[in-house]
Design the sequence.
């Protein structure tokens, strides 16, 4: 549950956000660049405090709990996270260090069970063949799939993904969307929140949507209720057409719009 406002340099990056994610829900957070999507996820992942309000994650409240311990129960990844990792790390180590929310394996002790689990999570996203590869040698799409495996390592109570498809080519994007769709369709998967600004990247199995505009909630609820051409046009400040085909969303500007 998040009820927050975040002020930066006198401007409301997020204003009067009131949002609850239930255990069986898969959320898309959609909006233009700069609308507050990434800020919202950084607050939800306990890496950023709101200016005012309440953040309660997995039954614990920010400011009244040990966030270092609680972060280990949150599977969080951002597109830029790959840049924080030492390029020479093996893919297995990248996944395994999620156990302690660490960036390097030498800070903690790991065992054979941890190494085996890392490979099992890689297998879940179709990357087990890369376990012994150097992370930096992978393509951008492969890296994001490895980071998805990393979020799954600790059996998180919630999975938060901030624009994982950014900078991916079409093949990489579609493979990652397929992985996310499979996870979303699995009833044993924790609730998922996916930030994007492209409706084409929404996996078919996702159930709910939040559309942000200038730091405020424009629409929120079941995805079929929120996703329509009028609301999407307001969200992105451009006249849009919207269609759903084969479970996937497509949007384009109206002719002359």
Sequence:
């Amino acid at each position: 549950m998040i009820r927050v406002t975040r002020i930066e340099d006198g401007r409301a990056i997020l204003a009067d956000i009131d949002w609850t994610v239930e255990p069986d829900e898969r959320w898309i957070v959609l909006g233009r660049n700069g609308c507050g999507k990434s800020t919202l996820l950084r607050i939800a992942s306990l890496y950023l405090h709101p200016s005012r309000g309440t953040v309660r994650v997995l039954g614990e409240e920010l400011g009244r709990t040990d966030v270092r311990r609680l972060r280990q129960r949150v599977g969080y990844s951002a597109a830029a996270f790959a840049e924080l990792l030492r390029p020479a790390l093996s893919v297995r180590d990248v996944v395994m260090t999620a156990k302690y929310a660490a960036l390097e394996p030498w800070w903690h002790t790991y065992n054979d069970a941890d190494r085996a689990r890392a490979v099992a999570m890689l297998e879940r996203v179709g990357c087990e063949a890369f376990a012994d590869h150097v992370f930096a040698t992978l393509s951008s799409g492969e890296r994001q799939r490895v980071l998805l495996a990393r979020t799954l390592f600790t059996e998180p109570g919630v999975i938060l993904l901030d624009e994982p498809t950014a900078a991916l080519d079409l093949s990489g994007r579609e493979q990652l969307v397929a992985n996310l769709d499979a996870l979303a369709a699995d009833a044993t998967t924790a609730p998922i929140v996916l930030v994007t600004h492209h409706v084409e990247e929404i996996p078919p199995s996702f159930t709910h949507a939040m559309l942000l505009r200038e730091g405020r909630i424009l629409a929120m609820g079941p995805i079929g209720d929120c996703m329509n051409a009028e609301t999407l046009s307001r969200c992105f400040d451009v006249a849009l057409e919207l269609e759903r085909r084969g479970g996937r969303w497509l949007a384009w500007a109206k002719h002359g719009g």
Remarks:
- DSSP finds eight helices and twelve strands in the chain.
- The mean pLDDT is 92.
- Helices lie at 37-44, 67-71, 91-96, 112-124, 140-152, 170-185, 223-226, 229-236.
- The two ends are 38 Å apart (CA to CA).
